[in-house]
Design brief:
Blueprint (H helix, E strand, L loop, with lengths): L4 E5 L4 H9 L4 E5 L10 H10 L5 E6 L4 H10 L4 E4 L5 H11 L3 E7 L2 H11 L4 E6 L30 E3 L8 H8 L3 E4 L4 E3 L2 E2 L1 H11 L3
Parallel strand pairs: 1-2, 1-8, 2-3, 3-4, 4-5, 5-6, 6-7
Antiparallel strand pairs: 9-10
Bound molecules: ligand LGQLAAA5.
The site of the ligand O=C(O)c1ccccc1N[C@@H]1O[C@H](COP(=O)(O)O)[C@@H](O)[C@H]1O has 26 residues, from strand 2 and strand 8.
GO molecular function, one term: phosphoribosylanthranilate isomerase activity
Pathway: Amino-acid biosynthesis; L-tryptophan biosynthesis; L-tryptophan from chorismate: step 3/5
Enzyme class: isomerase
Length: about 220
């Protein structure tokens, strides 16, 4: 069985990144959404990305950012992928892809079969799809809320034209079941590997990657 590729999102320190590399995560995520307890500024992300071990893919998480904001990030931070976590349209996904020449992962929040059906359209323009739980109505953050969704909704999914990743309330205790239930080969986590909001826990990171690969 090929390994499950794990993305650890919201890394903020060199230590976080060292643990991700040692645990054999595939991706690290820099969160540029200012209201998040996981956010980093551009100088911090730049230094972290420059120093990150080769082989860890560096992803920038942005939410409805305009070109000016994306220009500033991409001009400074060496990146492997952009993660669009807002209400970006398929046209905007295509525009970002063309403008920055970086692979784009579009996030789609799921709480119904209709939400799953919408993925098709985005899978034609994005390089990857991140299937996440829809944020609760009163949530301040559009993601990173530690909320799962009904994974059985994905049974109705058709073949998508690009690779996909699963997120939403994953943690070391439920990630193996999520992999079994959905057949996903890539998983993403933010709050489920933290000891407090925005504080990554090395043991939880190691346990998460190991549990994802225990199936
Ligand atoms: O993590 C955040 O703070 C965040 C803020 C704004 C948009 C997205 C965010 N996180 C992303 O959401 C998924 C799921 O988070 P969780 O594991 O349920 O806490 C996370 O992996 C990030 O990609």
């Amino acid at each position: 069985m090929t390994k499950i590729r794990a993305k650890i999102c919201g890394v903020k320190t060199p230590q976080d990144i060292a643990v991700c590399a040692e645990a054999d995560a595939a991706y690290i995520g820099f969160n540029f959404f200012a209201k998040s307890p996981r956010s980093v500024d551009i100088p911090t992300a730049t230094q972290l990305a420059v120093d990150a071990p080769v082989g860890l893919a560096k992803v920038a998480l942005v939410v409805n950012f305009d070109n000016e904001a994306l220009d500033a990030i991409t001009a400074s931070v060496p990146l492997d992928m952009l993660q669009l976590h807002g209400a970006e349209t398929p046209e905007r996904v295509a525009e970002v892809k063309a403008r920055y020449g970086l692979p784009v992962m579009k996030v789609l929040g799921i709480s119904s079969a209709e939400d799953v059906a919408k993925i098709d359209l985005y899978a034609q323009v994005a390089d990857q799809i991140l299937v996440d739980a829809k944020a609760p109505k009163d949530a301040v953050l559009p993601g990173g809320n530690g909320v799962t969704f009904d994974w059985s909704l994905l049974r109705a999914k058709k073949y998508w034209q690009c690779p996909w990743m699963l997120a939403g309330g994953l943690n070391p205790d439920n990630v193996a079941e999520a992999v079994r239930a959905t057949g996903v080969r890539q998983v993403d986590v933010a709050s489920g590997v933290e000891s407090a909001p925005g504080v990554k826990d090395p043991e939880l990171i190691r346990a998460f990657v190991a549990a994802a690969n225990s199936v």
